[in-house]
Write a structure and sequence with these properties.
Number of strands: 3
Shape: elongated
Pfam families: BTB
Protein name: Speckle-type POZ protein-like B
Number of helices: 13
Order of helices and strands: HHEEHHHEHHHHHHHH
Oligomer: single chain
Helix content: 55-70%
CATH superfamily of the largest domain: Potassium Channel Kv1.1, Chain A
Largest sheet: 3 strands, mixed
Strand content: 5-15%
Strand order of the largest sheet: 2-1-3
Length: 215
């Protein structure tokens, strides 16, 4: 077998690289899930549960953890991190991504929660994955939560949700009678105004496109 010839083949190289990445991902997932807490040097506490982890991996993946462990903070001295603003399931999904680059099976709800965690711990790859999933899952039911997530954490995702609403509802009478719209006006009046302004501009642009040009 001509090994040098095989190695010079681009397809073969890509296959070998993919297999190596898959194997590496499996090894790190094993490290994350091992019951013996293989050489863990920090404990993440969330929802009454303690999850062993490894500072070097968390620091390499997240600038937030890197800063936390590099400075003489409580977390660095005591080797414990209290995480109170995300659920245990979301934390485990974050860890899975940080250790393996994988995402667990997503739903709109879990992707929205994970998007928040990815934004907090500065994981752009995970944010992108969640954003793609949320856009692909956009529906009249899900758009309102996606809109709120985008408004807080990602301008591009917010714009996508606003555009969906503008294209979906041609008549404002339909929109204003929706419970989701009423809740948005009540709970986030500033965001409701943003949507309304965009909706009005969208209607004006459609009218201009339909208006016949003068010869």
């Amino acid at each position: 077998m001509d090994v040098p010839g095989l190695l010079s083949n681009g397809k073969f190289k890509r296959q070998m690289q993919y297999r190596s990445q898959e194997q590496l991902s499996k090894y790190f997932e094993r490290v994350l899930n091992t019951k013996s807490s293989c050489f863990a040097d920090v404990t993440l506490k969330c929802g009454g549960v303690s999850i062993p982890a490894h500072k070097i991996i968390l620091s390499a993946r997240s600038p937030v953890f890197a800063a936390m462990f590099a400075n003489p903070m409580k977390e660095s001295r005591e080797n414990e991190v209290d995480i109170t603003d995300i659920d245990e399931s979301v934390l485990r999904a974050l860890l899975l991504f940080m250790y393996t680059g994988k995402t667990s099976d997503l739903t709109v709800s879990s992707a929205a929660d994970l998007f928040f965690g990815a934004d907090k711990y500065q994981l752009p790859g995970l944010k992108t994955a969640c954003s793609y999933f949320l856009k692909d899952s956009m529906s009249p039911q899900s758009v309102w939560r996606i809109l709120a997530i985008g408004d807080l954490h990602d301008r591009e995702l917010k714009s996508f949700a606003v555009e969906y609403i503008c294209n979906k509802y041609d008549e404002f009478s339909v929109l204003e009678n929706m419970q989701e719209w009423k809740a948005l006006r009540r709970e986030r009046p500033d965001l409701a105004i943003d949507v309304l302004v965009s909706w009005i501009k969208s209607r004006e642009q459609k009218k201009k496109r339909k208006k016949p040009k003068r010869s």
